């Protein structure tokens, strides 16, 4: 039986007509347009950076079709996998087998830009290629940072600025979105930055893209 998808907010919605990369409609249409959007493999940054962490509570931000969440669950994590696209979440839940998760994944439809996750609740907050848009006051980002428990880990990965600069979509301005350096500068002394670097992608870039390098931030909140 497929896992249940729970709606955490009454009307999950992000963005407006001038922000197509934030709307529920944009993401639902993208997933409906293809039988499978992503490879089904966990992101290489997640595997490389968290393989040695003891399992606990994890938040998978923008979980998409669920490969990262299932990978974490197979390693003993209890995962809250969040996305605004119900199409993606139902696909992810349908792909989750007992062997994958054994009930360790909660699939949740929510808008984390308007409803922050619970503070101090997660030993790992994983943000993999999620289009985290800069906002005055950094409210969404601060909500994600606050969700990391003492001793827990924030893992943020996105495409390098050089790759994004070659993006052909005029609707996307890379300067509108956070990079690891932006986040590192906002961390207070209760954080220790373990990784802040640009590295080659662990897997080939999706067809039609120019993404050859990732930027990665891994930071630990001090106990």
UniProtKB/TrEMBL annotation:
Give any GO molecular function from the UniProt entry.
Answer: methyltransferase activity
Q: Name one GO biological process term.
A: methylation
Q: Which InterPro entries match?
A: Methyltransf_25, SAM-dependent_MTases_sf
**Which spans of this chain does the record mark as coiled coil?**
none
Positions of the Methyltransferase domain? 59-152
Q: Which UniProt keywords apply?
A: Methyltransferase, Transferase
One protein family per Pfam: Methyltransf_25
SUPFAM superfamilies reported in the protein's UniProt record: S-adenosyl-L-methionine-dependent methyltransferases
Region (Disordered) residue ranges read 1-22, 200-223
Write down the superkingdom of origin: Bacteria
- Composition bias (Polar residues) maps to 1-14
Question: This chain belongs to which protein, by name?
Answer: SAM-dependent methyltransferase
Which species is the source of this protein? Streptomyces alboflavus
């Amino acid at each position: 039986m497929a896992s249940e998808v729970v709606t955490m907010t009454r009307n999950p919605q992000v963005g407006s007509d001038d922000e197509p990369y934030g709307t529920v409609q944009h993401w639902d249409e993208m997933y409906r347009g293809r039988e499978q959007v992503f490879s089904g493999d966990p992101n290489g940054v997640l595997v490389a950076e968290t393989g040695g962490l003891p399992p606990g509570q994890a938040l998978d931000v923008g979980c998409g079709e669920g490969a990262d969440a299932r990978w974490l669950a197979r390693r003993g994590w209890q995962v809250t996998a969040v996305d605004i696209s119900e199409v993606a979440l139902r696909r992810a839940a349908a792909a989750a087998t007992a062997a994958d998760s054994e009930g360790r994944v909660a699939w949740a439809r929510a808008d984390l830009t308007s409803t922050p996750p619970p503070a101090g609740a997660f030993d790992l907050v994983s943000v993999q290629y999620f289009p985290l848009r800069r906002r005055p006051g950094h409210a969404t980002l601060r909500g994600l940072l606050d969700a990391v428990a003492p001793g827990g880990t924030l893992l943020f990965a996105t495409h390098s600025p050089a790759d994004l600069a070659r993006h052909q979509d005029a609707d996307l301005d890379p300067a509108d979105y956070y990079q690891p350096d932006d986040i590192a500068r906002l961390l207070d002394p209760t954080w220790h930055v373990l990784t802040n670097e640009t590295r080659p992608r662990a897997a080939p870039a999706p067809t039609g893209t120019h993404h050859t390098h990732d930027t990665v931030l891994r930071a630990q909140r001090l106990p």
